[in-house]
Amino acid sequence: MKNLLILILLFSFNVNASSVEPTKITKILVGPAYGNNVLITVSNKATDTPECQTNNNYQYAFDGSTESGKMTLSVVLAAYASKKDVWLGGYDRCDVFSGTESLKHIVAK
User: Keyword Signal on this protein (predicted)?
Assistant: First the structure.
């Protein structure tokens, strides 16, 4: 019973977290007006987008100044330049950039 409760709690936190696979990155936005934030657009619509996702132009955002963000930006740029498919997942929150879901992970193939 205890293990079942733990599983329910783990899965309940990302109920509306989006995912999209496979897709291509079609647009990357950076610049002084956006601080350290990187916003990306993908070719396919994500499933299960959170209520906070109100930006129609960009689907995911992340902080490009952290060590993790720098690695993520590297993968994003490589996937964009090579036009390779990626798999993306969100955090079910829009705390990096208002109206745009925070990126949880990217898988490049």
Answer: yes
Helix H segments across the chain?
2-12, 67-82
**Residue 53 has which token pair?**
């996702």
Task: Walk me through the domains of the chain, giving residue ranges and CATH numbers.
Answer: 16-108 (2.40.50.110)
Give the side-chain half-sphere CA count within 13 A for 61. 24
Confidence class for position 87, pLDDT limits 50, 70, 90: very high
Q: d(Cα 97, Cα 28) in Å, to the nearest integer?
A: 14
CB atoms closer than 10 angstroms to residue 20: 20
Element (H, E) at 64: none
Please work out, in degrees rounded to the nearest 5, the angle formed at the alpha carbon of residue 88 by the alpha carbons of 99 and 9: 80
Q: What is the pLDDT of residues 15-61, one digit of tens each?
A: 567 888 899 999 999 999 999 999 999 999 888 899 999 999 999 99
Query: Is the pTM for the entire model greater than 0.85?
Result: no
DSSP, res 46: P
Residue 21's H or E segment, with its range, is strand 19-23
